[in-house]
Structure formats: structure tokens, C-alpha cells
Amino acid sequence: MLLSDEILLYIKDFLEIVGVVVIGGGAVQAVYQLFMATFYKKLSSNYIRLQFGNRVTLGLEFMMGGDIIGSLVKPSYYNLGLLAIIVLIRTILSYFLNRELDLLTPEQRHTFR
């Protein structure tokens, strides 16, 4: 294996780890905000849901970047299929998140009720 291929594999692993951390951090933040909304009624559930969805989308983009780099190093049908599935999931999530944002009134888009 070439040195450049090894470097690309490290970059791929790094991007995938960043994606997992972004999604995990978004989940922790959403649970905290849900707790705050349950007991203090300061946050809208729409806000929490949309913010978490944005984090998932961002995390999937990092993972997709890692998979693109991985498919350059070790091209296979499995890697290309995995990449296609991630791109499809990310596209569907982005579409529905943007659609829901467009349906919200300006008052619902704010953080606080």
C-alpha cells in the first residue's frame, strides 16, 4: 500500500469519527434540551427536533466525506453501495428538515416559546 493511501485512510477514519462525535453531541444536547423543556417549559419541541436533525445531517456529511475518500483508496461495490445509501439518507433528511422549517411560523422558529 502506498503512503498516500495510508494517509487517506487516516483522513477517512478521522472524518468518520468527527461524524459520530457530531451526531453523538447532538443527541446529548437534544436530551438536555428535552429535559429543560419538560421541567422549565422554555424550549419548543420543534426547535429541539430541528436542531437535532441538523446535527444528524451534518454528521452524515462528515461520514459521507470519509466514505468518498475510502472509495478512492479501496474501490469496491460494497463501499459504493454504502456511499449511495448514506447520500440517499442525507438527501432525504435534508429535504424533510427544510420542508418542515418552511412550514413553521416565525414564532415557532424561535428558541423560546
List SSEs in N-to-C order: HHHH
The number of helical runs is: 4
- Rg computed from alpha carbons, rounded to a whole number of angstroms: 18 Å
Helical fraction equals over 70%
Give the N-to-C terminal Cα separation: 57 Å
Kindly give the count of domains. 1
Structural class: mainly alpha
The total beta strand count reads 0
Oligomeric description of these chains: single chain
Q: Strand count, sense and closure of the main sheet?
A: none
Average pLDDT figure: 83
Low-confidence stretches: none
Principal-axis shape = elongated
Report what the structure shows.
With 113 residues, the protein is mainly alpha-helical. The chain has one domain (3-109). The protein has four helices and no strands. The chain has helices at residues 3-40, 45-73, 77-103, 106-109. Helix 1 (3-40) runs antiparallel to helix 2.
Record the SSE blueprint.
Elements: H1 3-40, H2 45-73, H3 77-103, H4 106-109
Helix pairs in contact: 1-2, 2-3
Features:
113 residues, mainly alpha, elongated
Précis, in short:
87% of the residues lie in helices and 0% in strands. It is an all-alpha fold. Helix 1 (3-40) packs antiparallel against helix 2 and helix 2 runs antiparallel to helix 3.
